[in-house]
Amino acid sequence: KDPMAWGVNPAKPTGDAPADTRRKLDAAYKFISDTASALYPDYVKEKAFEDKFVKTMMKWSAYAAEVNYFKHNDMDYVALGHQNLNADNAYFWRDDKGKLDCGLLDWGGFGNSCVGHKMWWCFNCADFDQVRDNLPHYINTFAGTYKETGGPSIDFETLEMMVLLTVLENTSFMVKAVPNCFKMCPAKDFATIKDRHDPRIADNIHGKSTLRTTLHVMLNGVRAIQELEVDKMLDKFIKEVYVGRWGCPEKTDAIINGA
Fold first, then answer.
1. Which of 151, 162, 1, 153 is nearest to 71 (CA)?
2. Which of 144, 190, 209, 243 is the most exposed place for a label (fewest CB within 10 A)?
3. Taking a C-beta distance cutoff of 8 angstroms, is the pair 116, 159 a contact?
4. Distances from the Cα of 185 to the Cαs of 45, 84, 195, 204, 209, in angstroms?
């Protein structure tokens, strides 16, 4: 319950150093808007979206510990579960009668943590359109099932905020992973890649799904910022929770950007 134990600090950015964050964001943005732009929406080439993306990610980084504390402060929203239950960690087969069945991989992150965090990590490899169009239904379904199976009643808006703030943390991981993409697909090859189905990025590379996962999760992060207005959700967290509920002063641009 002690916010300081979670790294909360109103006087400093609580993610990576701002200069390092900005350098990685600039490299990642060049990747999505130029090198691999065929894989991303046309609006990534617009200056307005670039400014929004960079500003949002810099701001999230400045509040990284505060967001993490918020997601874990109320134990009603913390439960045991798989940490990374996206489609990439499922496997499927048919039994001798042809009935489809499935199982789960990657139990390394299994543990007790924020359910909103876990929810986004179920969605981050999904096709974005269905996530965007059905997210309220998914959140309500989870909340109802959670209560029906012995959990507490939880608030839709609080859970939604936790889910959408996790988008930014997840996107920050993908930003840091961009250099690794070039180890699996040379930069020159992206010039002739027209969509995500190209085998140079769709197949397992070096025996792993890392490349296609990174590209797709980054896509979902980009689209969530623009189409689910995750930037506004971050501002809402700062205004209503960080300032309004906790009584902390909003971090200045100098703190956020390291000026």
1. 162
2. 144
3. yes
4. 22, 25, 14, 11, 13
Q: Which two tokens stand for residue 52?
A: 């929004």
pTM: 0.92
The three-state (H, E, C) secondary structure of 30-83, written as one string: HHHHHHCHHHCCHHHHCHHHHHHHHHHHHHHHHCHHHHHHHHHHCHHHEEEECC
Parse the chain into domains and list their residue ranges: 3-85+113-257
Angle at the Cα of 22 (from 19 to 27), degrees rounded to 5? 130
pLDDT tens-digit series, residues 168-221: 999 999 999 999 999 999 999 999 999 999 999 999 999 998 999 999 999 999
Give pLDDT tens digits for 45-98: 999 999 999 999 999 999 999 999 999 999 999 998 877 777 777 889 999 999
- Kindly give the interhelix angle for 47-62 and 64-73, rounded to the nearest 10 degrees: 60
219 vs 41: CA distance, rounded Å: 8
SS3 180: helix
Closest CA to 50 of 36, 32, 23, 35: 32
Query: Contact at 8 Å (CB) between 68 and 14?
Result: no
Identity at 110, one-letter amino acid code: F
Distance from C-alpha of 141 to C-alpha of 213, rounded to nearest angstrom: 26
CA distances from 87 to 37, 109, 138, 248 (A): 24, 16, 16, 39
Angle, in degrees to the nearest 10, between helices 18-30 and 47-62: 150
| Residue 101 DSSP SS3 | strand
Query: What are the tokens at 220?
Result: 């979902």
